[in-house]
Amino acid sequence: MKNITVSVDDETYRLSRIKAAENGTSVSALVRNFLQNLAHDDAKAVSAKDPASETNLEQRRRILREVAADFEKRGIGLRMADNLPREELYQRNAIR
Questions:
Q1: In contact, 29 and 20? CB cutoff 8 Å
Q2: Which of 23, 26, 56, 84 is an S-S bond match for 88, by CB 3.0 to 4.6 Å?
Q3: Distance between CA atoms of 62 and 37, rounded to whole angstroms?
Q4: Per residue in 41-67, pLDDT tens?
Q5: Contacting residues for 24 by C-beta, under 8 A, at least 6 apart
Q6: How far is it, in rounded angstroms, from Cα 96 to Cα 82?
């Protein structure tokens, strides 16, 4: 994984930290997701021109991105904080 440095004004940084906190993530993760979506949108445009050129790996990645986008749209989290506590997970009698 490569590191990059980005300079933004103070207000943009402040607002991005607020947005990241609202989403339970970091500013770095927001930027990473933005850049990944940007790169993948370009890849989609290329594969849309010739769908047969999409490899099996590209197809799997596209499907995974679509599922993750659907989860995000529905508000389904994949964060550790969203998991059940151990005690609740193993309450087998409560399920029966």
A1: yes
A2: 84
A3: 11
A4: 766 665 555 656 778 888 888 888 888
A5: 77, 79, 81
A6: 23
